[in-house]
Amino acid sequence: MKSSKLYDFDINCVPLNIVVYKYEKSNFKIVDINEKALFTEKLIKEEVIGEYITDVFPRVKEFGLFEVLLRVHHTGNKEIFGTSFYNDERISGFRENEVIKLNDEYVMAMYKNVSRRIEMEDNLNLSKEIIHNIAEAVVITDLNARILDINPSYTRITGFSKEYMIGKNPSVLKSGRHTKIFYESMWNDLLHKGYWSGEIWDRRKNGEIFPKLLNISTIYDHLKTPKYYVGIFQDITHIKKNQEELKKLAYFDPLTNLPNRTNFEMTLESEIKINIRNNTTSALLLLDLDNFKVINDSLGHTIGDELLIEVAQRLQIIGRKSDTICRLGGDEFALILRAPIQREKIQLVANRILKALSEPFYILGNEIFITTSIGISLFPEDSSNKNELIKNVDLAMYEAKKEKKGTYKFFKPQMNQENMKFLTIQKDLRKAILNHEIFLNYQPKIDLKTMKIVSVEALVRWNHPLNGIIMPDNFLDIAEHSGLIHPIGEIVIRQAMKDIKALNEELNTNIGVAINLSTRQFNDDNLTTFIFECIDEVKFNVKKLEFEITESLIMEDIEKAILIMNNFVKNGISISIDDFGTGYSSLNYLKKFPIKYLKIDRSFVKDITTDDDDKAIVAAVISMAKSLGIGVIAEGVETQEHEDFLKAKGCHLSQGYLYSKPIGIEALKAFIVKNLEE
Question: Looking at the whole model, is its pTM more than 0.90?
Answer without folding.
Answer: no
